[in-house]
Amino acid sequence: MEKLFVGVDIGGTNVASGLIDEEGNLLQRDKRPILAQVSQDASLRQIVNGIRMVAEKEGISANELGGVGIGSPGPLDPFQGVALSPVNLPTWGTVPLKKIVEEEFSVPVTVDNDANVVAVGERWKGAGRDVDNFLCATLGTGIGGGAICEGRLLHGFNGNAVEIGHITVDFNGPRCGSGNYGCLELYASASAIARRTSERMERERPKSLLTEAEQITSKTVFEAAQRGDKFALEMFEETGFFLGVGLVSAINLLNVEMVALTGGLANAGDLIFNPVRRTILERGFPGVKEKIRVIPTQLGEDAALLGAAKIAIDGGVFI
Amino acid sequence: MEKLFVGVDIGGTNVASGLIDEEGNLLQRDKRPILAQVSQDASLRQIVNGIRMVAEKEGISANELGGVGIGSPGPLDPFQGVALSPVNLPTWGTVPLKKIVEEEFSVPVTVDNDANVVAVGERWKGAGRDVDNFLCATLGTGIGGGAICEGRLLHGFNGNAVEIGHITVDFNGPRCGSGNYGCLELYASASAIARRTSERMERERPKSLLTEAEQITSKTVFEAAQRGDKFALEMFEETGFFLGVGLVSAINLLNVEMVALTGGLANAGDLIFNPVRRTILERGFPGVKEKIRVIPTQLGEDAALLGAAKIAIDGGVFI
User: Fold this and answer.
1) DSSP element (H, E) containing A31
2) pLDDT, tens digit, for every residue of A47-95?
3) Distance between the two ends of chain A, CA-based, in angstroms?
4) DSSP β-bridge partners for residue B134
5) A255 touches chain B (CB under 8 A)
6) How many CA atoms lie within 13 A of B143 on its CB side?
């Protein structure tokens, strides 16, 4: 009989689980609060119960699964399957996630970074199907990334590869929480567009619909831009330019042929994709830049579930 | 009987060949002018004659070789083994190097980028022995790079991976020949230290031994620094800082645990290694930066010969 797997997507608010077959069909789903603000125990119980639930919905026991793949916020050690005090899960500290879930169900468990499982999911069933050199970037509060290099998910020596949010775009820029200065995510994340818009409004007092907004968020800047607001449109141009600058560095190092973007800012469509693509054509290598495709991801929230399960199906991060 | 291989290192001035066994012993050598200024034909004859010579010195015919591995200046297509108008070989244009040498000797031929073969050689027998995530950078006229990621040489989709000289350190910096702006090699190559030193002397008229130099080169700046010249020492500090900034971006993407430096500037020893290491400790990721070793390469000119041969021994770039 064909084996079934569970993919788990741990977020700061919810934990989602999906029962998935080896062909990548998503058979059952579950989503529940992660309760990481309450306690480590409560949130681990939510994770375990979600896994059990999607198996039972299909009429099987979780002990009969082929394996469980988990995507978890970093930092973490994917080789040992240990979460290392993720910022978004404040009660956690160091949690041996792989060991805990393996002991619960007696099935193999793999753990990987949340940005990595999205990249694997999109490469399996989404934007990066059949693309062997593929970068997937998440534009949210920060900028996360995962890369498939020559057909394999890149981890590096201790699982911290493709921290694309923390490559330098300006050596002289402001300090970032990562320790680096002038990091891409200070210029081109959803948080960054909000912060940079507020700063420019303070400084330049532009004519803009945004002067009437109660709060400046990436969403209010987007809405103003959609209504044709010149200043808001400029902020998207600038943000796309910076994202393009960062992607050119990443492309010059990884030589990927496709970049898929996801997360809040990616939903802005042409407003962000146009300046990104233009900057890559302006700054990329001749012989490379013409071949780069920059597109939105295709699977939405399912990417993480599918990717987490795929890593379990493939037997873990070393495959 | 054990097979023997030839590694070839094509440079802008000379072509070197080495006869190498599968354990990495360098049994015979040859070095002759590449004659690429004369004609494409003349330089291809030099390459073929060098290969034949090292085989014959050992008393075998080149047709009995296990294979030939060639390191050639980029741009090139390592998958097809075709040189694509390398700047340093002005008479070449597009040259199907693999096909030409295979037809000459009827043995398998592999072709790879000159920076890549150095990385493979150093990983096989030099600084990166047993290091699965290893970056090797050459600090010459430009800055080249090759990376071993999880045990495999990284090529990317069309063989242009690890162009570390062309990652951005300042989005607002000057335009580079690569098409990008503010590229690392404009700040931290051997040419860059000479150019930036001249510019600062022009601008700031510092007190320095260098005011008496006939010409400002990386060598004269090095000699002045060795004699304790404060301005020259500052130029090395600044250059090492920029190199560190670029390496932090590369480390945050590739998560390598070792960086080996080679080429003219790397010979400056602590003058360049100290500010590089300090910058990585200042700007790198906690949990990563403490584990990064930055060291000189160990094999000198043999690295390229050994690496080129190793790629042939392993059967080419797809392995």
Assistant:
1) strand A26-33
2) 999 999 999 999 999 999 999 999 999 899 999 999 999 988 999 999 9
3) 23
4) B148, B258
5) yes
6) 32
Nearest residue to A66 (alpha-carbon basis) of A93, A27, A31, A30: A27
Put simply, whether B319 touches A (Cβ < 8 Å) is: no
Query: CA B302, B303, B306 angle in degrees (round to 5)?
Result: 80
User: Cα–Cα distance between A79 and B234 in angstroms, integer?
Assistant: 42
Tens digits of per-residue pLDDT, A126-143? 999 999 999 999 999 899
Would the ipTM clear 0.90, i.e. be above it?
yes
Shortest CA distance from B183: residue in chain A: A249
Q: What is the DSSP string of chain B?
A: ---EEEEEEE-SSEEEEEEEETT--EEEEEEEE--TTT-HHHHHHHHHHHHHHHHHHTT--GGG-SEEEEEE-SSEETTTTEEE--TTSTT-SEE-HHHHHHHHH-S-EEEEEHHHHHHHHHHHHSTTTT-SSEEEEEESSSEEEEEEETTEE---SSS----GGGSBSBTTS-B-TTS-BSBTHHHHSHHHHHHHHHHHHHHH----GGGG-SS--HHHHHHHHHTT-HHHHHHHHHHHHHHHHHHHHHHHHH--SEEEEESGGGGGTHHHHHHHHHHHHHHSPTTTGGG-EEEE-SSTTHHHHHHHHHHHHTTSTT-
Dmax (CA) for chain B in angstroms is: 66
Contact between A236 and A268 (Cβ < 8 Å): yes
User: Is B82 touching A (CB cutoff 8 A)?
Assistant: no
What's the CA gap between B24 and B4, in Å, rounded?
A: 10
Cis preceding-peptide flag for A75 (omega within 30 of 0): yes
The pLDDT of residue B1: 67
DSSP class of A183: B
Task: Identify residue B185 by its one-letter amino acid code.
Answer: E
Q: Left, alpha or beta for A297 (phi > 0: left; psi -120 to 50: alpha)?
A: beta
Amino acid at A229: D
- Rounded Cα–Cα distance for residues B244 and B239 (Å): 9
Q: What are the pLDDT digits (tens) for A203-224?
A: 999 999 999 999 999 999 999 9
Contact B85, B94 (CB under 8 A): yes
A285 closest CB neighbour out of B154, B160, B172: B160
Q: Does A294 touch chain B (CB under 8 A)?
A: no
Encoding tokens for residue A315? Answer: 């037997």
Give the list of residues 6+ apart from residue B107 with CB closer than 8 angstroms, or none: B62, B63, B65, B66, B67, B68
Q: Give A-chain residues touching B159 at CB under 8 angstroms.
A: 255
When pLDDT is cut at 50, 70 and 90, the band that residue A319 belongs to is: very low
What is d(CA B70, CA B100) in angstroms, rounded to the nearest whole number? Answer: 12
* Short-list B275, B226, B75, B99, CA closest to B161: B75
Give A161→chain B minimum CA distance, Å.
5
**Strand A14-21 to A26-33 pairing:** antiparallel
CA distances from B109 to B63, B81, B105, B300, B319 (A): 12, 8, 9, 24, 14
For residue B218 the two structure tokens come to: 């990386």
Give the mean pLDDT of B131-137.
98
Confirm if A145 and A136 have CB atoms less than 8 A apart. yes
Longest Cα separation, chain A: 66
Of A245, A250, A255, Cβ closest to residue B158 = A255
